[in-house]
From TrEMBL:
Pfam families: DEAD (PF00270), Helicase_C (PF00271). PANTHER family: ATP-DEPENDENT RNA HELICASE RHLE (PTHR47959:SF13), ATP-DEPENDENT RNA HELICASE RHLE-RELATED (PTHR47959). SUPFAM superfamilies: P-loop containing nucleoside triphosphate hydrolases. InterPro entries: DEAD/DEAH_box_helicase_dom, DEAD/DEAH_RhlB, DEAD_box_RNA_helicase, Helicase_ATP-bd, Helicase_C-like, P-loop_NTPase, RNA-helicase_DEAD-box_CS, RNA_helicase_DEAD_Q_motif. A motif (Q motif) lies at residues 1-29. CDD domains: DEADc (cd00268), SF2_C_DEAD (cd18787). SMART domains: DEXDc, HELICc. The gene is rhlE_1. Residues 32-210 form the Helicase ATP-binding domain. Residues 221-387 form the Helicase C-terminal domain. This is ATP-dependent RNA helicase RhlE. Belongs to the DEAD box helicase family.
Length: 470
């Protein structure tokens, strides 16, 4: 099946083609026609299945008749609202919206906490057909009267299960009460816990259920390894495995913020190029760390489940569970960071004696035997330090080892987006300066650009356009 057969507007198809996608993923093939028909949809699909385009493409198609270039805010009321649980996911969905809407004069704004509210307010006041938001910050804007939701025709609840896990249920109900009753509602969730069903009964009209193969059952492209390791040896085993598998880049999961912080510190001391992201880090620091990781300059990213939720990192070959998650569903989300959209990946779990229970639950959930295997390679517990020359050499090597990303490297056009950034040396380090310079363009598909230079960046690099919260 190709995208052409789905009846999407030509300018949307053109943008999809630019992204290099010719065939819809299963959730796209099933959801797009139903959304186009106007029905409510409840879809069981996780990050990595292509779910973002599954709701974004038909949403844009339905808004296309409203596309206009008028400067009047009245001509750009909010017509579609997309709610996401985390700031990072909000930014990623916003990126997808702007990517697929690039040939249509529709406006989009990202609204999430931890960053300055003013540019968001300005963007909303100028008018924006599509708003991608986290619930708390959206309600702040409602309270500040910078957003009017009375003309919303389409609502998307992305990763609804996680929004409920994160305690957003009251916020969501409050937001739902502000929307017109006559609207189309699309709910995407990895699981359908009773609260989700209740939410759908209260707020949806005879939704069509769409369930695509769960990654845990179907994703054969992720190799899963379990090693039994005493907690005090885990760090040394991890350092050994990074070298043994020659991991160009890896996400390492911990259960707590404290452990994420400690492990990152220790790995840094061992000579690894490593940073942690978790809920106690400032939004600015999280965005910068993610940008460095996506750009390929950061080798090891240590993350907690909440911080890493929904992150779209393409072609990441390795994920390590330094600590097993208490909730087996989180295991599925964690390993979903690798083996995405058909690529292959390896997920390694270091299971301590007190974590065997979660390993059993995970086996049950994933329906896989997953034997505990010995740590591969010659492993000596005294060998911990990463030799600096090696780290230096490897930090320059991944580009050649990786799939090429830029046209100069021979990458597909689809992986590249052209964005304009102020000319700064060492973009990430200079981010705060750059941030101030981009305030005018926050959240809009049409940026107001100064005397900037055009640079080519990997499509997944978070643009440093968000002003830090004062
Ligand atoms: P998502 O589940 O929305 O987080 O998407 C997972 C990844 O799949 C993203 O990197 C998308 O860019 C990619 N993707 C989305 N649609 C397609 C498609 N039709 N073919 C191949 N990859 C896709």
């Amino acid at each position: 099946m190709s995208f052409d057969t789905l009846g999407l507007h030509a300018e949307i198809l053109r943008a999809v083609l630019d992204s290099g996608y010719t065939d819809p993923t299963p959730v796209q093939a099933r959801a797009i026609p139903v959304v186009l028909s106007g029905r409510d949809v409840m879809a069981g699909a996780q990050t990595g299945t292509g779910k973002t385009a599954a709701f974004t493409l038909p949403l844009l198609h339905k808004l296309q008749p409203y596309a206009n270039t008028s400067a009047s805010p009245a001509r750009h009321p909010v017509r579609a609202l997309i709610l996401t649980p985390t700031r990072e996911l909000c930014d990623q969905v916003f990126e997808s919206v702007t990517t697929y809407a690039k040939y249509l004069p529709l406006r989009a704004t990202a609204v999430f906490g931890g960053v300055d509210m003013k540019p968001q307010t300005e963007s909303l006041r100028r008018g924006s057909e599509i708003v991608v938001a986290t619930p708390g910050r959206l309600l702040d804007h409602v309270q500040g009267k910078s957003i009017d939701l009375s003309q919303v025709e389409m609502l998307v609840l992305d990763e609804a299960d996680r929004m409920l896990d994160m305690g957003f249920i009251l916020d969501i109900r409050r937001i739902l009460s502000l929307l017109p009753a006559r609207r189309q509602t699309l709910l995407f969730s990895a699981t359908f816990a009773p609260e989700i069903k209740k939410l759908s009964e209260d707020f949806m009209r005879q939704p069509e259920f769409i369930e695509v193969a769960r990654r845990n059952a179907a994703n054969e492209s992720v190799e899963q390894h379990l090693h039994a390791v005493e907690p005090e040896k885990k760090r040394r085993v991890l350092a050994h495995l990074i070298r043994h598998h020659n991991m160009g880049q890896v996400i390492v999961f911990t259960r707590t913020k404290l452990m994420a912080e400690r492990l990152a510190r220790e790995l840094k001391r061992d000579g690894f190029n490593c940073e942690a992201i978790h809920g106690d880090r400032t939004q600015q620091s999280r965005l910068e760390t993610m940008a460095a990781f996506k750009e390929g300059t950061l080798r090891v990213l240590v993350a907690t489940d909440v911080a890493a939720r929904g992150l779209d990192i393409s072609e990441l070959p390795f994920v390590v569970n330094f600590e097993m998650p208490t909730n087996p569903e989180d295991y599925v989300h964690r390993i979903g960071r690798t083996g995405r959209a058909g690529a292959s990946g390896i997920a390694i779990s270091l299971v301590g004696p007190d974590e065997e229970k979660s390993a059993v639950l995970i086996r049950k959930l994933t329906n896989k035997a997953m034997e505990v295997t010995p740590v591969p390679g010659q492993f000596s517990t005294s060998e911990t330090r990463e030799r600096p020359q090696r780290e230096y050499r490897e930090s320059r090597e991944p580009r050649a080892e990786r799939e090429p990303r830029t046209p100069r490297e021979g990458g597909r056009r689809s992986d590249i987006m052209q964005i304009e950034t102020p000319l700064v040396e060492g973009r990430n380090r200079e981010a705060p300066a750059a941030l101030g310079g981009r305030v005018g363009g926050v959240g809009h598909t049409h940026f107001h650009r100064g005397p900037n230079v055009v640079r080519e960046l990997p499509a997944l690099l978070l643009p440093p356009r968000y002003a830090v919260q004062k």
